[in-house]
Write a structure and sequence with these properties.
The complex is a heterodimer of chains A (291) and B (436). With 291 residues, chain A is an all-alpha fold. Chain A contains 14 helices and two strands, in the order αββααααααααααααα. Chain A has a single domain, classed as Orthogonal Bundle (MetI-like fold). Helices cover 76% and strands 1% of the residues of chain A. A two-stranded antiparallel sheet of chain A has the order 1-2. In chain A, α3 packs across α13, α7 packs antiparallel against α10 and α10 runs antiparallel to α14. Chain B folds into three domains: 165 residues, 3-Layer(aba) Sandwich (D-Maltodextrin-Binding Protein, domain 2), CATH 3.40.190; 111 residues, no CATH class; 87 residues, no CATH class. In chain B, the strands form three sheets. In chain B, strands 1, 2, 3, 4, 5 and 13 form a six-stranded mixed β-sheet that branches. The longest helix of chain B has 18 residues. Classes of the chains: A mainly alpha (291), B alpha+beta (436).
Chain lengths: 291, 436
């Protein structure tokens, strides 16, 4: 009787979360799965069309282009982002560095700026006619005429990748610093006594010991990076075919064209792609652990 | 036992509060209709009374509702403004579900075609709208008709488009700031290209006649055959000339290469480095006119083709219990009296031809100095081609505009641009049969 009562109290305490989750998460997830098998414009009732949305998706070149764009932008973002974050974390973890707190706050600052603002700032910086970057390069005599950055398949994606990198490197730096601070000082002291130099300490002690943090950062970056939307969406001056990411395509299909059924199918395809990438990274990590 | 009941009640209240959609205070209430309506001399209704809910994306509607209520004190209009691009989605969802739907709502010209054939929009023809629109510019009537020819939405503004120009720069580089002379000079694209060359030459490339070659798309689009009719895509061969014109402007560096609606484009309007921009009549907010410093510095000339851009269309929810009140509200905006008041108070250019005719020699807007802008706009509004709209009409023009702008910038041929456009149509509307 007593246990039953306790259980009831327990259930009543956790119920609010599950109710909210069911209403605002589970129901939309299941409903969008249902919608992915329908043709629905949001005004008439959804009509069931079986797997037609998915068969269309398989042959949709726009979708494949959006996957390519997403991966391109993600790679342009993640490589400098993690390298820079790790480098700065190791530097700022040195006790000898003065003003560490100031630099931590400074590097974290871009993360509190909204992605929309970052998108607009970079879009203006690289504007073809009035952008600061072109004006600067012209003034320095590096270029003869304005470069139309946004019409270059390489530069347009690279610039968006760098904008995202600028936004997130500070956050990842803090993650790495938290990992670094959890390493026992005794290990470093032992390394000094054994005559290890800074490079050896970094590669032989620090990096192996913060590997779990690196994995965490990598996986969250994959999940977040494959869902990029707001920063590229602010680059209105770029041909959308060059910078349209998977989530931008989902938004365009759902909320510009109002093909909610097809947009739901795209959403599930994105979910599968992210799941596959996350599983691959987990697999690689586990394989390394086993070896 | 008491504890159990209390616990069960608490959980019930929690679930109920989460699952129950709060009934909106804005939910339409049934109107009290005391017999047939009769209008007084000011256009107000003495007999109808009650409250209606109005949804819009346009803040000025609050002023419009005040104006209506001052003439119709028995009818209260509860205006709900939803700014931003999610309004279209919101109204779409509410019309589909019917939950808390407004009695009357606005639809932007850019997407009215997507709604016009939906049964959730009341048939205004059956309520007598045709008679109200007898003196309207024909294209504005067509804009609110569904495929069976019934009126489903009504506007109170014409939104005619023309070349707004910087008077000082026009005088310096074109030799005149007279709107009639400039309308003549801007009457063909060949003439515009020639003028553009002169401006670039005289200014040493610092000043341009046009901000972006894509102005040609919006000016020319309404004079071309619609891209999609009867679920088939056709590309009017006349677009070849337009693309050649655009290519000519860009290849000779005759435009300022400023993307429309970009910050740099907005800045050029105010600093005079671009002389003329294709602008709709409602675009005055782009002009930096703090303390009236821009008054008298802008003029309006006709573009090579008459066109319009954007108009606020007003419709009634078919299942509204207050359709009579809502129609009274819509009817008010079609009156001469209101459209004159709207013109004078807000600068919104009217939809009704009689309002132009009656004010053509007297109305001036401080921004345009002593120019009788209704004269210029009347010439435009009375010649804009009338097209029936559907869900494809405006979007297909936009998709073509994107393909053309990107194609010309990339140096593509007309055929490559047409193919890129076909790809865009195929992706956006797979049900459409392509011409190739």
């Amino acid at each position: 009787m007593y246990n039953k009562k306790r259980a009831l109290y327990g259930i009543s305490f956790i119920a609010p979360f599950f109710i909210v989750f069911a209403v605002f998460n589970l129901y939309p997830i299941l409903y969008s799965l249902y919608l992915s098998f329908t043709d629905w414009d949001g005004m008439n009732l959804p009509s069931f069309i079986g797997l037609r949305n998915y068969s269309r998706l398989i042959t949709d070149t726009y979708f494949y282009t959006s996957i390519f764009n997403t991966l391109f932008i993600w790679i342009c973002s993640i490589i400098p982002q993690i390298s820079l974050a790790l480098f700065l974390a190791i530097i700022l973890n040195q006790k000898a560095i003065k003003g560490r707190d100031f630099f931590r706050a400074l590097y974290f600052f871009p993360n509190i700026v909204t992605p929309v603002t970052i998108g607009v700032i970079f879009s203006l910086l690289f504007d073809w006619q009035t952008g600061t970057v072109n004006k600067m390069l012209l003034a320095l005599g590096i270029i003869d005429g304005n470069i139309n950055w946004m019409y270059s398949p390489f530069f347009s994606r690279l610039i968006i990748g760098l904008a995202i990198c600028w936004q997130w490197f500070g956050y990842n730096m803090l993650m790495f610093m938290a990992g670094l601070q959890s390493i026992s000082q005794e290990i470093y002291e032992a390394a000094y006594i054994d005559g290890a130099n800074q490079r050896q300490i970094a590669f032989k002690i620090t990096l192996p010991l913060i590997k779990p943090v690196i994995i965490f950062v990598l996986i969250t970056s994959i999940i977040g990076g494959l869902q990029i939307f707001d920063v590229p969406a602010m680059f209105r001056n770029a041909p959308q075919d060059l910078i349209r990411t998977m989530v931008m395509y989902l938004y365009e299909t759902g909320f510009t064209r109002y093909h909610f059924g097809y947009a739901s199918a795209i959403a599930y395809a994105i979910f599968i792609i992210i799941a596959v990438f996350s599983l691959i990274s987990l697999k690689i990590t586990n394989a390394n652990k086993e070896s | 036992m008491t504890k159990k009941i209390t616990l069960a009640l608490a959980i019930f209240v929690l679930i109920a509060s989460l699952l129950t959609g709060c009934k909106s205070a804005n939910e339409p209430q049934q109107s009290n209709q005391a017999g047939d309506q009769t209008n007084d001399q000011t256009g107000g209704s003495k007999e109808l009374s009650g409250e209606i809910v109005m949804w819009t994306y346009f803040d000025q509607v609050k002023w419009q509702a005040e104006s209506f209520m001052s003439k119709n004190p028995n009818i209260k209009v509860n205006v709900q403004v939803f700014p931003g691009d999610q309004y279209e989605n919101k109204i779409r969802m509410v019309l589909q579900s019917g939950q808390n739907a407004p009695d009357v709502f606005d639809l932007e010209e850019a997407y009215v075609g997507k709604f016009i054939d939906n049964p959730a929009l009341a048939d205004l023809s059956a309520m007598g709208a045709d008679k109200l629109l007898e003196d309207y510019a024909p294209y504005l009537v067509a804009l609110g008709k569904d495929k069976s020819g019934k009126i489903k939405a009504v506007t109170d503004n014409g939104s005619p488009g023309g070349f707004w120009y910087n008077r000082k720069s026009a005088k310096e580089y074109l030799g005149t700031d007279d709107p009639d002379k400039l309308s003549e000079m801007f009457s063909s694209w060949d003439s515009i290209i020639k003028l553009s060359q002169d401006v670039v030459q005289k200014s040493g490339g610092k000043v341009h006649l046009l901000a972006h070659f894509s102005d040609a798309i919006k000016i020319e689009a309404l004079s071309k055959k619609p891209f999609i009719e009867d679920s088939k895509l056709t590309i009017d061969p006349a677009w070849n000339d337009v693309l050649d014109t655009m290519r000519g402007i860009r290849s000779k560096n005759l435009d300022a290469k400023l993307d429309p609606w970009s910050p740099a484009w907005g800045a050029a309007i105010n600093d005079g480095s671009v002389i003329a921009w294709a602008m709709p009549s409602w675009a005055g907010f782009f002009i930096d006119n703090k303390d009236g410093k821009a008054n008298g510095t802008i003029g309006i000339a006709k573009a090579p083709k008459p066109y319009f851009e954007g108009a606020t269309m007003r419709a009634i929810y078919d299942k509204s219990p207050n359709k009579d009140l809502a129609f009274e509200f819509i009817k008010y905006f079609t009156t001469d009296e209101y459209q004159v008041e709207n013109l004078k108070e807000t600068g919104n250019i009217p939809a009704k031809l009689s309002v132009y005719k009656n004010n053509i020699d007297t109305y001036t807007d401080p921004l345009f100095g002593d120019q009788k802008i209704l004269k210029t706009y009347y010439d435009i509004i009375s010649q804009v081609p009338a097209h029936p709209v559907d869900r494809y009409y405006r979007d297909s023009i936009n998709l073509f505009g994107t393909a053309a702008s990107e194609g010309i910038t990339k140096g593509q041929t007309n055929e490559q641009i047409f193919n890129a456009f076909r790809e865009k149509i195929k992706n956006a509307y797979p049900e459409i049969e392509l011409d190739k």
